[in-house]
């Protein structure tokens, strides 16, 4: 028993030591650890409580915990607040689960696309890159004043405010507006 306790204590110390050495990015007042998956990190961001609630309501938690890799353009609570009054509450209703999943998966791209990879696509596309989402729609990516801007199919745009938040199963880019398919 003593040996088992010592082994468990050693594992905790080693994990704590590894966590201290990880290069983290702070999002919503919390460190985002590259060794954790998208969901494990997102639940700690106070700026993404609406997104986390939406992911849960849409039944996408297990998908975003899977190996991926995924690139997630993660709208903040303030981004959701920009939507017309009642939109979020309506989308979170059980009868609107499919619609909510459509909106959320429009923010997800298959693969691990960091800002440098997206910038390269933009350069190759002579100023614009077309990115296919998991939902099946497309986003147009451009650079404006050194910032990555995404434009949805309805003409709305979102700016990446925090880029390259690496996860064990992909990368998150925080955005300031909800994109609509």
TrEMBL record:
A GO cellular-component term linked to this record: extracellular space
Residue ranges annotated for the FAS1 domain, each copy included: 35-179
Keywords: Signal
Entry annotated with the keyword Signal: yes
Keyword Signal: yes
One Pfam family here: Fasciclin
SUPFAM superfamilies: FAS1 domain (SSF82153)
Protein name: Uncaracterized surface protein containing fasciclin (FAS1) repeats
Organism: Sediminibacterium ginsengisoli
């Amino acid at each position: 028993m003593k040996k088992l306790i010592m082994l468990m204590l050693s594992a905790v110390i080693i994990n704590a030591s590894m966590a201290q050495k990880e290069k983290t990015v702070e999002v919503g007042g919390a460190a985002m650890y590259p060794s954790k998956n998208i969901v494990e990190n997102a639940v700690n961001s106070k700026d993404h409580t609406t997104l986390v609630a939406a992911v849960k309501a849409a039944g996408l938690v297990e998908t975003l915990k899977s190996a991926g890799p995924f690139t997630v353009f993660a709208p903040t609570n303030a981004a959701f607040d920009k939507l017309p009054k009642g939109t979020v509450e309506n989308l979170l209703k059980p009868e609107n689960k499919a619609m909510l999943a459509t909106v959320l998966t429009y923010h997800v791209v298959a693969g691990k696309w960091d800002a440098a990879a997206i910038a390269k696509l933009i350069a190759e596309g002579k100023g614009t890159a077309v990115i296919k989402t998991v939902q099946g729609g497309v986003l147009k990516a451009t650079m404006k004043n050194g910032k990555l801007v995404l434009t949805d199919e309805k003409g709305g745009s979102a700016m990446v405010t925090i880029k390259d938040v690496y996860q064990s199963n992909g990368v998150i880019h925080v955005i300031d507006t909800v994109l609509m398919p």
